[in-house]
Design a protein that fits this description.
heterodimer, A: mainly alpha, MetI-like fold, flat, B: alpha/beta, 9 helices, about 40% helix, transport (chain B), Polar amino acid transport system ATP-binding protein (chain B)
């Protein structure tokens, strides 16, 4: 019991980093998701191919290697610094999950029933109005549960930033373990508990998203 | 002799290798009520979908109120119409669909108000009044704030008609609007169409399997068979005096 009381505040020092990296990378990921998702539906073949390239590269390779690329390789090769390791972590996680989420955006838009677009055409809406007033609001409802799921995954993905020297929850867990190896089980148990508690509100939001997405959409 | 508001000139349509329409020539006068009948797969729906710009003809011209729908002039040549041209020409056309296609994320009233406000840039108050009026006319004045999922099929279809009417079309297209309804709900929808046919001076084109109804309200009946208009005329001409055997066979199946 004493051990827990000692370890807990140590780990909590990493909360700040975990939470800020999560929030910033989630915002970047959502942004990329909508930009890339819409670009992949563009009529311009170059925009489509280019975005497809981004999505497949970031989906098809490992997040941790991407992180190392951004952190170690790119500065060496091109002399570009992406800013602090906080920014590097945010960019890597944001781009990676943005690629996954762009497929959710694309899929949701495509799954709004064709009749919706036809009805909007029959009301003489422009292509942009059809998207903005009819397709997109319905697609967004469908996206909510998947966005929730990926955000929970992103939370856990943030633990990778400890590998580029960021002081998040896992980083402090590793420090504690290395200073007292016998405490490893309890340290890592508490690390898990931390992540679980952080995930709870996200799980709750995902549930809520599922309920919203069930109503107000025409598909099939 | 008034000019037709819609004219099809040798319109063909194929989907892949299948020739659905093989040369349609057709005039629709303003305020004329036209029923298109024929076996399924004969291309009835395709005719009105091309008029609504949902399907592009493979060849031929569709003229709406003197303007070529699918082609426009550019540097002295006729080229394929762009979105802007399509929007200009189809503005007077409205359509009601077999599966209603109401917007599920909007209330009934919003369904009716969205297009006039955003497409025609009319004032919100005016559109609101007109929408409520129209919904009352189709018997749904009590349901303004309901969502489509809370309505029966017949009610949904009546909303769909109100939504199209608020745009004040000169031409209304009805694509098998009762086919997806339970039998006991068909009557209420037909009643609204009958009311429109009687009191509105817009042209109406009905693709339908409700044979008696169509023959009752239509000024002109087209029998479409194997991609061509096999017979056309007034209801009595087509039904009683036609010697087209396929038409007779088709009607017999309906009459039992």
């Amino acid at each position: 019991m004493n051990a827990i009381i000692e370890i807990f505040p140590q780990l909590a020092r990493g909360l700040h980093v975990t939470i800020t990296v999560l929030l910033a990378s989630a915002i970047l990921a959502y942004l990329m998701a909508f930009i890339a998702g819409l670009c992949r539906l563009s009529q311009n073949i170059f925009i489509r191919k280019f975005t497809g390239f981004y999505v497949e590269v970031f989906r098809g390779t490992s997040l941790i290697v991407q992180l190392f690329w951004l952190y170690y390789a790119i500065p060496m090769l091109f002399g570009i610094q992406l800013g602090s390791n906080w920014w590097t972590g945010v960019i890597a996680i944001g781009l990676n999950y943005g690629a996954y989420l762009s497929e959710v955006v694309r899929g949701s838009i495509l799954s709004v029933a064709k009749g919706q677009s036809e009805a909007a055409t029959a009301l003489n809406m422009s292509r942009f109005q059809r998207m903005r007033l009819v397709i997109f609001p319905q697609a967004v409802r469908m996206m909510l549960p998947e966005f929730g799921n990926y955000t929970i995954q992103m939370l856990k993905g943030t633990s990778l930033v400890s590998l580029i020297g960021m002081t998040d929850i896992l980083y402090y867990g590793d420090i504690l373990r290395s200073s007292n190896l016998s405490q490893a089980p309890i340290v890592y148990l508490l690390v898990l508990v931390f992540y679980f508690i952080l995930a709870l509100p996200l799980i709750w939001l995902t549930r809520k998203g599922e309920r919203i997405s069930k109503k107000g959409v025409a598909n099939g | 002799m008034t000019d037709p508001i819609v004219r099809f000139q040798d319109v063909h349509k194929s989907f892949g290798d299948v020739n659905v329409l093989k040369g349609i020539n057709l005039d629709i006068k303003p305020a004329e009520k036209v029923a298109i009948i024929g076996p399924s797969g004969s291309g009835k729906t395709t005719i009105i979908r091309m008029l609504m710009t949902l399907e592009e003809p493979s060849s031929g011209d569709i003229i709406v109120d003197g303007k070529n729908l699918w082609k426009m002039e550019k540097n002295g040549h006729m080229v394929k119409a762009n979105e802007k041209h399509l929007r200009e020409v189809r503005g007077d056309i409205g359509m009601v669909f077999q599966h209603f296609n109401l917007f599920p994320h909007m209330t009934i009233l919003e369904n009716c108000m969205t297009a006039p406000i955003h497409v025609k840039k009319e004032s919100k108050e005016e559109v609101r009044d007109r929408s409520i009026q129209m919904l009352e006319r189709v018997g749904l004045g009590e349901k303004l704030d309901n969502y489509p999922s809370q309505l029966s099929g017949g009610q949904k279809q009546r909303v769909a008609m109100a939504r199209a009417l608020v745009m004040r079309p000169k031409i209304m297209l009805f694509d098998e609007v009762t086919s997806a309804l339970d039998p006991e709900l068909v009557g209420e929808v037909l009643e609204v169409i009958r009311d429109l046919a009687k009191h509105e001076d817009m042209a109406m084109v009905l693709v339908t399997h409700e044979m008696d109804f169509a023959l009752d309200i239509a000024d002109k009946v087209l029998f479409l068979d194997e991609g061509v208009i096999a017979e056309q005329g007034t209801a009595s001409e087509v039904i009683e005096h036609s010697e087209n055997e396929r038409l007779q066979g088709f009607l017999r199946r309906f009459r039992g």
